[in-house]
Amino acid sequence: MNVFAQLSVGGDPYSWRNPSLFSERQIPVFVASKIDKSRFEKEDAENEKSNDFFRFSYPHSVNLNLMNSGKWTVLENGDRVWQLKIQCLEATSIHLFFDKFNLIGDSRLFVYSLDRKFKIGGFTTKNNKGSKGYPGKLATQILKSSGVILELYEPKYNDGNVLEVGTIYHGYRSFPLFNEMLSDESLTGGTSGSCMVDVNCSEGALWQEKKNGIAIIQVGSGMGTGTLINNTANDATPYFLTADHNFNATTIDAIGNDDASSCVFYWMFEDWGCKTLSYRGALTTSGVSMISNNEGSDFALLLLTESPFENLSEFIPTYFNGWTRTATPPAGGVGIHHPRADVKKIGVYTQVPETSNYTGIYPVNSHWRVQWVPTANGHTVTDPGSSGSPLMTDDGLIIGQLHGSAVYSCSNPYEDRGIYGRFDASWDGLNFNGTYNTSPQRRLKDWLDPEGTNLGWHPGGYYGNCDGSLFLSNTYNDIRRYKSDNFIYINSTILPTADVLLTADVNIDFNLGFNAQYGSTLNAIIETCTSGWGASIVSSPAISELKPDATMSDLYNEKNIEIFPNPAVNVVNIRFNKFSGERVDIEIIDVNGKVLLGKHYNMSQIGNVLSLDLTTFRSGIYFVRLKTSDFLKTKKIILNK
Fold this sequence. Notes:
By secondary structure, this protein is mostly beta strands. It is built from 8 helices and 48 strands. It is 6% helix and 39% strand.
């Protein structure tokens, strides 16, 4: 049995745990009408000549709720279980849209396939986006099955749940997102062409963080691609940039109908290696509002209801990609996308992007056009399903989102050019008729630059969310927000373009190799991780006192405390060359932040050398934390036995 990763509390349906009380044969069945699959396949073949949205399902409009459908079973203790079976004849998949969803108390909802191989849930009050009087909505991800069972467990005195299925999506295409990655079948590859290059091949080596902001977006019956995008407030607002034409089959619009609750986002759907076919599962969030869109440059900016930063940070190192509104982008960059809802791919271009008006009917200079080049592992181009994916410069900045391309795909990748709506045109609200729109619902600038800085470009950003102990050693040139509920150990290089904020519950240690270059912004705060980003005590010495190109020697003289031998076997010695204090507290901490040993020492008794017996410790990396009334320092040690 495979479990989808949609936000839920997990567990199993009540009927699975108490099979003697239930009979599947007695569950009422709703059978959706049969669809004309051949007709849809012909339509798709025609639409995809322009590299359009990747459609894979047909929507059945229904009205199935707790009052008019399904069956209630009353348990001996007064609790109740509601069940409903839904079948779509010959379907390859099913996903649902609840146009009314609000659970009460400890109630839980599950949706699972008839063979019980696939399950999502349990959904709880945490999935509510409204109230009993004004229910919210919920879209589910796809399940590989032609039939599903809905099962609601309702404890006694928790009546008042609101559930109403408004749309059943009947899948008629197979692709890896549900056909292979979540099954026990052998993996045979994706649905995009063989020329496509996985993002974890060598071509993606420099894009391992930025790829994490890019996801599949499921809009009703089809799928596209898009990306999280940073704003100048650096506040992790979950803005998601994609293509406006991904919503052509809907009535969703930033003006008049901004509710896009039917959308589901699939994160981290990748081949773990390079063409290894080793992919299992994808993490999903659902629900969104469209806050701005314009067909002139084919952009749509969405505000996610469930942010991966807040809801999936334990699993996803969330990255919000940066952008530039330059009208003269440099040569070279990449496109990262999900062609035909396949695992994430990366394409490379080396020339300066050309200006384009797409099909000849769009405004002059409203688009960029690039030609993809062959690389070590293939020759990636775009396909249906890539729509809305970002075009990025070699500096990692977005300059547009995919509108369309030629129809050649892998059959002739040299002639398959990608055409992207220009970010600078979207910024100012370029309309289809060539004029500019001053409404915030038709341009990007009001959302991505809320403070009116008028910056020409803004870097991407990583936003941590109360992680454990952190060990930072990379070079940073972007926005960084790290939170730790223990301590942060840093010897990174902070480049002039970087803005780094560190917060930790216990301590922030700047170690040998640390270098904050002139022009960079760096702040360190000691505060409780749940208390937000408010000001507090700054780790000594204050970051504001750092001189240009500050290094570790400016923060701490390594010669004052020596640890030897290091690496060690069983005994580690600590020499205090310059020390003014009566007592020192010493802790030994593992790489997970767990304190393994804690002792207090009187310096008048131990002199200037202290020996620690670590015979019972295994080989590995540890940290020695030393604390006095006016001093706090952490040093790394290695035990090699």
